[in-house]
Amino acid sequence: METNGHLDAFTFRTDGLFFDPQHHACVLMGTVEFASFWHAFDGCFSSPLGRKLIYAATDAEETMLRQREDFQYGRWFGRRRVQANLRQRSHRMGWGRFEDEHILMPANDAITVGLFLAHREHTAGQRFNLEWNQRTSERIDVVLQPKEGEMTPVPPVEPFTWLSSGLEGDVPKASLTLDLDHRGSTLFNGQARSFFLPVSVIQRLLDGLRGRPTTVPGDVGSSEVDAALEEPDLFLAVVHASFEAFRSTDQPVYLQRGEDWGGHLSQQFTQRGFGRVEVLQSVLDGADSTVFRVQSPLPAVVAGSVLAMWCRAHGKRPEASFSQVDEFLTVTVREPRVNYD
Fold first, then answer.
1. Among residues 46, 126, 180, 309, which is most buried (max CB within 10 A)?
2. What is the mean pLDDT of residues 206-233?
């Protein structure tokens, strides 16, 4: 695989899954793309979720750090080695440059602050109260005050079924050529500033939102959701956020036949770690609806993008339904049906 040297430790599989150097699943997100996603998702709730995103990132990163030998140190030795490994991790992942009391070139304010907090707590071996101030888009100042008490491990989470769809076990590495470029402390996918987002951050965020009331606007909010999917309103909030994130782009989707979907879906998902999407049938081939089968570590996120791509390709409003079939998330889209009764 042709990459810059910073990516050699990543694993890029033929099923479209990406794994970071610590062998944890991640996806490649544009910074503007995630900001659009977050704005739409946050708007589905009655109160801001910024702190929840910060601590979801902290808890997800801390859990990984506790599991990996290369981030462990003894009572007297090894702390500098771990600090160097943490700096290398933040650089490889495109998160920005983590200094002692500030972050330079943060990929995303809340996520980066949460990851920074996890790194500082891990190396100090204690909890901190967090305050931060973003002076400019290129710098965040962080103030940490020690907390009393032991640093107990964060509790595990049980991801929703719609946060893991049709994933296989042992799959060979892919031979992918990725247009990724590290520029100082930043990562670019083509011309778009990007970063690797650990899948576990989204899993932890959503686990902390179980049972929370949501309001999902627009066509997504009226979609049909299979009763087998847990927390359907939360599921639709994720779909809506991803739908709006793609809608905010100018990415073209030109189709003449159903088979033309392949290149668009590969570029949007497989080449960014979101897995694979298969088109089971298409209205372009005479079917009454287009049916997508999603194999992904974040299928609800993929579903929203797929829905927005369908709208852009057909220039029409969608009528969508979502179901879990044989462990795969299935997305069915058609034009709205008119009832003349």
1. 309
2. 92
pLDDT reading at 210 higher than 60: yes
- Look at residue 151 and give its three-state secondary structure: coil
- 5-146 matches 211-334 in fold: yes
The token pair at 327 is 């462990």
Q: Give the domain 5-146 fold.
A: Muramoyl-pentapeptide Carboxypeptidase; domain 2 (3.30.1380)
Q: Determine the straight-line distance between the first and last CA of the chain, rounded to whole angstroms.
A: 59
Virtual CA dihedral for 50, 56, 61, 62, nearest 10 degrees? 110
CATH of 211-334, one of 2.60.40, 3.40.50, 3.30.1380, 3.90.940: 3.30.1380
- Tell me how far apart the alpha carbons of residues 66 and 208 are, in angstroms, rounded to a whole number: 21
Tell me how far apart the alpha carbons of residues 157 and 81 are, in angstroms, rounded to a whole number.
30
Q: State pLDDT tens for residues 290-335.
A: 999 999 999 999 999 999 999 999 999 999 999 998 889 999 999 8
CA distance 272 to 178: 9
Phi–psi pair at 339, nearest 5 degrees: -100, 115
Domain coordinates in residue numbering, the chain: 5-146, 211-334
- 142-147: long-range contacts, CB 8 A cutoff, minimum separation 24: 142/101, 142/102, 142/103, 142/113, 142/116, 142/117, 143/101, 144/117, 144/120
